[in-house]
Automatic annotation (TrEMBL):
Organism: Draconibacterium aestuarii
Keywords associated with the record: Signal
Signal sequence segment: 1-21
Ranges of residues in domain Periplasmic binding protein: 34-288
GO molecular function terms noted in the UniProt entry: carbohydrate binding
Record's keyword annotation contains Signal: yes
CDD domains according to UniProt: PBP1_TmRBP-like
Name of the molecule in the record: D-ribose ABC transporter substrate-binding protein
One Pfam short name: Peripla_BP_4
Family note: Belongs to the bacterial solute-binding protein 2 family.
GO cellular component: a single term: cell envelope
Location in the cell: Cell envelope
């Protein structure tokens, strides 16, 4: 009787051991899955970033899935929980918040999943494997210099900036103001966030114009907001009086410069950032561990003088 109980106990332990082993195997990162986590797909620029990253990962032989955080840190955290549980081998990441996203990246790192930040950075030197970032500050220094010339060093302007928790917002704003603030006759009469969103920017600009009828220009922290601001300016019958400046190099903004609607923008290279992130993730998966903390990507000022070089292909 005792012998039968012992045999049953051993058999039970074997089953439990197998179940535990399967569970551990399920949670270990797979070698053929890469997650692409994007702050929002409600912006054509980020759609290009997401699709370019996913396609490059597929070209390198991986399964790739895009996760849309919808500019919601809670949804982003949920994505990371699922990615860790499903055993992805790397994450190509466009954060929602420079501070709030750090814990998500650290949680993935603890699970053995490397994260490669694209376009937006997090405020940590060691959580992500590397961060590929446009040179936002320098780009907006160039934009600020062009802005000063176009304004003849005087006039009233508005700033519409992006997400408060995104470092790109303040790097772009900081670069712009490092130049423009040196000219006392250039006066900022209003400043407000529109969360990098086109529709919000249109509403914000409409409200500002009601309170501030004498406006000569608007500097927007991205092209989606610039196009929204332009819609508001056009509807108010002031398209010939208010110059609109953006940042990103989105196709509609580039075409807008050619059509005389947008004064200038700064072109980023989302495809380059996305593809490079996928290549670096592939290198990590294959054994490389020596990565720079940050990898800067050059940007280009686009104006009516050089826009023909950058017009979208039809």
């Amino acid at each position: 009787m005792k012998r039968q109980k012992l045999i049953k106990l051993i058999f039970l332990l074997i089953i439990l051991s197998g179940t535990f082993a399967c569970s551990r195997k399920h949670n270990n990162p797979s070698s053929n899955k890469i997650a692409v986590v994007i702050s929002t797909l409600n912006n054509p620029w980020f759609v290009v970033l997401a699709e370019s990253a996913a396609q490059k990962a597929k070209d390198l032989g991986y399964e790739a899935q895009i996760f849309d955080s919808q500019n919601d840190p809670a949804k982003e955290a949920e994505h990371f929980d699922n990615i860790v549980a499903m055993g992805y081998s790397a994450i190509l990441f466009n954060p929602t918040d420079a501070d709030g996203s750090v814990l998500n990246v650290k949680r993935a790192k603890t699970a053995g999943i490397p994260t490669f930040c694209m376009d937006r950075e997090i405020n940590s030197q060691d959580a992500a494997t590397t961060q590929l970032l446009s040179d936002n500050f320098t780009g907006c220094v160039k934009l600020g210099q062009y802005f000063v010339k176009q304004m003849n060093k005087k006039g009233n302007y508005v700033e519409i900036f992006g997400l408060v928790g995104d470092n790109n917002t303040w790097n772009r704003s900081g670069g712009f103001h490092s130049v423009v603030d040196e000219f006392p006759e250039l006066k900022m009469v209003a400043r407000q966030s529109a969360d990098f969103d086109r529709n919000k920017a249109m509403d914000v600009m409409e409200t500002i114009m009601q309170a501030q009828p004498e406006i000569d220009a608007v500097f927007c922290g991205n092209d989606a907001m610039a196009m929204g601001a332009y819609q508001a300016v056009l509807a108010a019958g002031k398209a010939d009086k208010i110059k609109v400046f953006g940042f990103d190099g989105a196709d509609d903004a580039i075409q807008g410069i050619a059509d005389g609607k947008i004064a200038a923008t700064v072109m980023q290279f989302p495809v380059l950032m996305a593809q490079t992130s996928a290549v670096l993730a592939d290198e990590y998966i294959k054994g490389k561990r020596d990565f720079d903390t940050k990898t800067p990507v050059e940007v280009i000022l686009v104006t009516p003088e050089n826009v023909n070089k950058y017009l979208p292909k039809k």
